[in-house]
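Design request, tokens follow.
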């Protein structure tokens, strides 16, 4: 089973636009769980334009499935996650002010720094994941720093899906096989949506978790949150023979 973790950044963005606590992120998180989501993700950025650092502890209190906190491992970020102890922390190499995530870590060049951070998180009782591109050398670097999991940056897959989905998924399928050989757990995310999700999941049999925010929250404007989560769960449960049907 591939777990669906709903990223609530865009819900936080709406909340922040008026300064009050509406929509209430904690309530939306628990409703997502009630509607079938198997995890909740937020990605607080240094400017806190959507998810904020103080959301982490509040969500930790309320989330009963799995809480995944993504972000750049600044000292501030590390202090917040080590105090709150989410189930998983996903390290992302974003510059402050970056619009959104657009690449994975250099696990070779930044090996020592990443290994120290992963050790701190592991000693804090937190499962670790690092955001990566589907490159075998980078995966070997990820195994060397002893992260529990990797999260594939799926932006290039999403961009290529419409023109040639087999070509778009091929590097991820190959990298997933290599990651599994290396003993790494496998997550994925970025720009996954109702069109491209089922095929990706079917082509990566070792995939364990996807985190989806932007498209899912946008779809919820049309279908409602409960229906939308069901649609995403259906995409994750479809077998190969059903792939064309779900588009
Ligand atoms: C790591 C990743 O791909 C997601 O966390 C994504 O960056 C969501 O962040 P935004 O909602 O800020 O685009
Ligand atoms: N890790 C990816 C994530 O949480 C959500 O990315 P997106 O669906 O908002 O592009």
């Amino acid at each position: 089973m591939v777990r669906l973790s709903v990223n609530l950044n865009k819900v936080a963005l709406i909340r922040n636009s008026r300064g009050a606590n509406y929509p209430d992120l904690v309530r939306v998180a628990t409703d997502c769980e009630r509607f079938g989501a198997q995890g909740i993700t937020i990605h607080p950025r240094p400017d806190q334009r959507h998810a904020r650092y103080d959301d982490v502890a509040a969500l930790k209190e309320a989330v009963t499935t799995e809480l995944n906190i993504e972000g750049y491992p600044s000292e501030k970020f590390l202090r917040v996650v080590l105090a709150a102890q989410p189930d998983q922390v996903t390290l992302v190499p974003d510059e402050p002010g970056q619009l959104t995530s657009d690449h994975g870590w250099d696990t070779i060049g930044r090996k020592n720094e990443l290994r120290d951070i992963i050790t701190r998180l592991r000693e804090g009782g937190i499962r670790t994941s690092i955001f990566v591109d589907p490159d075998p050398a980078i995966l070997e670097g990820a195994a060397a720093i002893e992260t529990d999991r990797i999260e594939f940056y799926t932006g290039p897959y999403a961009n290529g899906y419409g023109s040639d989905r087999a070509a778009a998924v091929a590097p991820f399928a190959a990298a997933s096989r290599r990651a599994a050989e290396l003993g790494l757990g496998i997550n994925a995310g970025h720009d996954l949506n109702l069109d491209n999700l089922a095929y990706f999941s079917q082509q990566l049999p070792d995939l364990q978790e996807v985190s989806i925010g932007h498209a899912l929250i946008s779809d919820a404007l049309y279908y409602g949150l409960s229906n939308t989560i069901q649609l995403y769960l259906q995409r994750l449960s479809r077998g190969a023979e059903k792939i064309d049907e779900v588009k």
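Comment from the thread starter after seeing the answer: thanks! The pocket of LD2JLWAY (ligand 2) is lined by residues 7, 41, 43, 70, 151, 189-192, 211-215 (CB under 6 Å).
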